[in-house]
Amino acid sequence: xxxxxxxEETVTLNANYQMDKEASHHMLTVMRxxxxxxxxxxxxxxxxxxxxxxxxxxxIATIQFVEGLAxxxxxxxxxTLFVGLPKNDKLEWIVQKATELGASQIVPVAMRYSVTKWDxxxxxxxxxxxxxxxQEAAEQAHRTLVPSVGNLVxxxxxxxxxxxxxxxxxxxxxxxxxxxxxxxxxxxxxLESGQQLAFVTGPEGGFHPDEITLLQENHDxxxxxxxxxxxxxxxTAPMYMLSALSYARELL
Amino acid sequence: xxxxxxxEETVTLNANYQMDKEASHHMLTVMRxxxxxxxxxxxxxxxxxxxxxxxxxxxIATIQFVEGLAxxxxxxxxxTLFVGLPKNDKLEWIVQKATELGASQIVPVAMRYSVTKWDxxxxxxxxxxxxxxxQEAAEQAHRTLVPSVGNLVxxxxxxxxxxxxxxxxxxxxxxxxxxxxxxxxxxxxxLESGQQLAFVTGPEGGFHPDEITLLQENHDxxxxxxxxxxxxxxxTAPMYMLSALSYARELL
Lengths: 252, 252
Known about the structure:
The structure is a homodimer. Chain A is α/β, with parallel strands linked by helices. The first copy, chain A, has helices at 21-30, 90-100, 120-140, 155-161, 173-177, 183-190, 209-216, 236-251, and strands at residues 3-5, 16-18, 38-42, 48-55, 62-69, 79-84, 105-110, 148-149, 153-154, 167-171, 197-201, 222-225. Chain A folds into two domains: 3-69, CATH 2.40.240.20; 79-251, Alpha/beta knot, CATH 3.40.1280.10. In chain A, α3 links the parallel β7 (105-110) and β8. In chain A, α2 packs parallel to α3 and α4 runs parallel beside α7. The interface between A and B is medium-sized, with 34 and 34 residues.
């Protein structure tokens, strides 16, 4: 059954609702739904309803909320991923995969070794496109939350932002090479439900040591972590961290 | 420092060795190495040496093994990934990422819902290309083993092959939807070092129920596992399992 996010905070069971143009087009033209067909609808407050198509006049899909569902698809510790701006279209891929794996927010960071630079004029369009990728991935992954994609920030701005998180895990190859392998586990094991978590990963060239220093300065919530003995590419490290978090918090 | 796999089972410290044409070309022409420059060399028996370039005559790189290293980059429970043939170039991507994340072997499986079909005549070329991707990824990930990419098998052949593994984890969306979330942990917690593990993941359309039945028949080493509450795409499920295994065996 298809899944659609709607802009309402909350809705009432048995009420009717007109889907917006884009969703209506997808339902009626792309999916060729007929009256009586059903969809999942997710509100902004993460409530999930089954909606039944009751009208398709003027190319607008009107649905009725016929059933409320108690679904919990989200990590109990929301994660923001700060990701060093990678090459090519890798950021799109990271946004898609991080959404599937449960991230709540993704913030691209222009790091010292980021080869890619964003033209300030085009940044808005890029974020818009990434936000759309997150929405599609959230629908496909059956999430109840669409992760938000933040504006590009500098390493310094990021160092300020991470102060507001309960725990920050930085994936740093240099400590992994020295055999560090306990910090990630320590953080995951001491997390409490509802705590805000940040993951920080570098671009292809890794972090500049100054960026690590900046993250650590005066911050006792920052753990510099190894991710096992193999060297992971820039786009693989966030997937490893999110998968490990799901394993530790949702399966273990 | 660049890393190269050589075809020798084992080598002797201080001995000289001629790299093959391809590696020589990479060292001398692509990387423009000069005599005195150093590389990592990994033998077939997974020994790691530092090699120093001592001669570059006739476009062949001759090195001397100047130091032996005691490196352990491999999972202590070798994993074979049986992966339902996915669409487009996703298999290339899966081979690359599974190599980074520690798989020992990758076997593509023509499953009931695989949309892609391989032309028998071109299969050899495809495997060759995938094997090359695995080698490059293994070099980049600093592995001591290049995963082997097996020939395409049928679901029935796979069901026969998994009998020879100590433990088999099948990622099945339908059990995840019913809330299954303990099997993967149970398997990982009871693994013993050296045990052979198989992961089985489906193509975009998932498994046909008959394929699950076939895997389970008479096999008490097969665990049908959920991977958390979100629906993962075909290419994401193997990454989740490999990341979780590394977390459970190498960090936890």
